[in-house]
Amino acid sequence: MLELGPGPGLTTDLLRQRVNRLTAIEVDPTLAESLGERLRGSTVRIVVGDATKMPFHDGRFSGVVSFTMLHHVSSTALQDRLFAQVWRVLQPGGVFVGSDSRQSWQMRMIHIGDTLVPIDPDTVSARLELAGFEVLEIEKNSRAFRFHARRPAHRSEMSARLRNSTDQIFETVN
Hints:
With 174 residues, the protein is an alpha/beta fold. The chain has six helices and seven strands, in the order E-H-E-H-E-E-H-E-H-H-E-E-H. It has one domain (50-173): Rossmann fold. The chain has helices at 10-15, 29-38, 76-89, 105-110, 124-130, 157-173, and strands at 2-4, 22-26, 44-48, 61-67, 90-101, 134-140, 144-150. A seven-stranded mixed sheet has the order 3-2-1-4-5-7-6, with helices on both faces. The model has no long low-confidence stretch (mean pLDDT 88).
């Protein structure tokens, strides 16, 4: 399993009790180093890296999780690139689950001086589908949303065309 943006590792601690092996990719070197030191000797591998340009082989993971970190990705184009990268590193049939907070006055106050690019839960399904996912569930309330998507076991011709289109879009982001 791969965890995106674990930060200080609150969710990492919960996940590592439930999976045999866990890899976490964290863009902040200080947080990654601290988490790596704390979890030294465990079954958790911490990688310093950008989830929009993951250093992993295609199809490396059976599952990817993202908990309250997507809004820290600095633009919707880069968020979409992250979705495409998750699709790439997932095995066919693999799942991508996550949650994030919705836009609110409180979220804006918490993020003064920090990146805040909220994901609109009304468009996340279409964005995941554009990256090639089959969206299984989107659940939302006034404060947050969560999603459950899967990389199809067999890539249809339509998803291949969509995938090629998104690859071209993402190349222009670089």
